[in-house]
Amino acid sequence: MPVDADRLVGLIRDGLPAGETIGVALSGGGDSTALLHLCLAAGFKVEAVTVDHALRAESATEAAAVAASCAAMGVRHEVRVWEHGAVKGNLLDAARRARMGLIADWARARGIGVVALGHTRDDVAETVLMGLARSAGLAGLSGMRPAWDEGSLRFFRPLLSAGRVELRNWLRTKGIAWIDDPTNDDIRFARIKARKALVALAPLGVTAERLAEIAGHLAQVQAALAVQVRAVAEARVAELAGALCIDRALWSEPAEMQRQVVIAGLGWLSGAAYTPRATEVARLIAAMAAGRDATLAGARARKGWLMREHRAVGAPVQVGALWDRRWRVKGPAGEVRALGAEGLRQVKDWRGTGLPREVLIVTPGVWRGEVLLAAPLAGLSGDWQAKLDRPFHLFGLVD
Hints:
CATH architecture of the largest domain: 3-Layer(aba) Sandwich
Structural class: alpha+beta
Number of helices: 13
Strand content: 15-25%
Number of strands: 18
Mean pLDDT: 92
Largest sheet: 6 strands, mixed
CATH superfamily of the largest domain: HUPs
Low-confidence stretches: none
């Protein structure tokens, strides 16, 4: 297969902001290795980070080999290690979350505002197949975002229109080696099953290129729908104290509008990377429309409200750090954790807020041991202020 090197370099130049130091997430695999070398070929100043997931005995050696390769090219490089015990639940999802967190921490520490990831057209196709398997809607069938913001960082995927084989062929023409991770052949994982399925579907003409093209069409539909969904959300949903008060008129809107608003609410409340299964979302919507209590994906529906589920809130942090992926409390030192029923009992005038008890107990409280210092959303603020990291209407509906 001939390689159009100019096209690949052009994807990098067009897909990344000029004049920025690019942080490259470098696993050492073919995709990320090609990304690093293409960024250099495009004339960007780069730094690289490798996350050692510590899930295989060889991972530390492989990370050291990547570091040595970068040193030989004069590229500044760091290794960040995922320190973990036994990993429960979805291993790949947990590893992905840890990887993204460690990459973001590295970039912020280095003063880098742009991070490039090496996802390809094949990743898009696999994502579409996995979305089909879980009855996903538009968001799950529209491929992968080319760029997005996480606080002060902006992430880019400049190689989404390049194929995995194409990138490896380019590396071969340059005599550049890469590391093959045996995890990529482990069919216990859904993404690897999707990768194998693509091979089986190829004789029908269902290729990575075709699926990526379909995902692109659906992404355009998604963008058009987003305009309408935002208008409905602004008219029917009010964000109060980190919870969503939902007007009953929402349940008279078209079913897809209801679904998109509720999915956006779930994602905003929980920070989950993936949308729950369509059947579960439908169950939640039916319960909310009928006025019944229900829970899903770390959120709780009750009496016209969609709020954080108390048992799902994040671990305690110190004042100033991001709590429960959404809240940042500023003020004197203290520990931030959920206000809870015990904390609410210590706030005499909480009813004056007009907010339900269930909403307030999952808002941030500032504690010193078992002593409540502040409950900013419940009317006991003192010298502390609590602010959402991302208000709901800026969350990015239909993303």
